[in-house]
Every structure is written in structure tokens, then in C-alpha cells.
Amino acid sequence: MLKPILMAGLLGVNLSAWAVDWTPYLKSMQNECDFSIINVPTKTLGDGNKTNIPKSLQPSIVSYAHTDEKTDVRLKNATAFGQPITRVVTGYLNGDTFFLTVHFANANFTQIKPQFSIDVDGKSYVVGTKQAWGVTYTETDQIDEDGEPVIDTSYTPISQQQKQQVQRHLSNDGQAAFDALLEIHENGWRYDTGKVFTSLSFDGKNNSLSCHQSI
User: What is the 3-state secondary structure (H, E, C) of 60-112?
Assistant: First the structure.
């Protein structure tokens, strides 16, 4: 019997048919890096116990290395978001920034950018769009289930010059016109209050895609 890889070559079948798809496990990266959801896969990746990773993904794992700072999972015959992947890493940078990074096999992995977006006032903006917003938080008279005032979030489109001013004020803890800055650009997006941030970034040099969140 022909081995799958040989048969695929003879019949012109896409090898991804035999690859293990990590997309469902990593899908929260497409959900604006929602770390309340991302915690689910990263806890099972980073808890030091390889057997906690779903059985469906196990056949693609070549090696699993765990330290206090990060968990590094090397892969073979694995895909995510329609592209072959070689590695998934999660952990902390400098002790205060949590990250989840996926490494891709091919440089053309950036063609998946349209699969990643942010929603602003009901409109979706895909990675590659260039736009910035000043973000304002306003307390309302409504009370949430925890007894706290409901916060209304509004977004104001701003220019490149205004963006730089907001960045400067937020980073220096100065009097900014807005409470936060949201920017989407060619290689990802970033939501920054000056004290904490969440971001998604494509790194063409390292063939990787990352979610970061300061804590």
C-alpha cells in the first residue's frame, strides 16, 4: 500500500488532508485575542502536562518542553488557519506579559491576515487596514450583575498625528484626550490604555503570529 505522502504526490492531493488541524484549539486568536478564551488552550499547553492537550492533537506533537517561563511545543504534519505550522509557544515575557505564538512553515502564511479582524461599532476591520481610534470610557446609570456601573465604550477615529499625541500622553501617564488607543495596521492591531495592552501581530521575519497581553 502506498504511504499517504507518496499517494498524495501521485494523485495531486493536498497533504493537509493528513495534517492535524490546530485551528479550533487556537481560534480565540481570531476572536480579538480574547484571553478569557485563550486561557483554555494555554492552560493545557502550559501546565507542564503534555497529556492534557487534546488527544486529537497529540499525533502532531514532536516534542514538548516546559519551564516556569514558557511551554514550547514542536509539531509535524500540523496546520492552523489553513497553513502548515511547526511550533506553538506560550508563556510570559519579562514576567508581566502573557503571550501565545504560532510559528508557520511558509513565508506566505501572511495570506491569512484577512481571517483576523477587530470590531468597532458593529463594523469589522481586517488586519491590513490602517486606522486608529481614541477610546473613551463613560460610566452609565446601569448596574451589571456584579453591582458595578456599566461602562459605555465609544470610539473616535483619529489621524496619525492625533494617534502619536495620544500614545505620548498615555505612555507618560499624562492628561490624554482619550482613555485608550486602538490601532489596526498592516501587521496586526493593538489596544493600549498606557498601563495594560492587548495585541495581535504578524511577524514576517520569524514566520509567526502572536497574541500578547500585559498583566
Answer: HEEEEEECCCEEEEEEEEEEECCEEEEEEEEEEECCCEEEEEEEECCHHHHHH
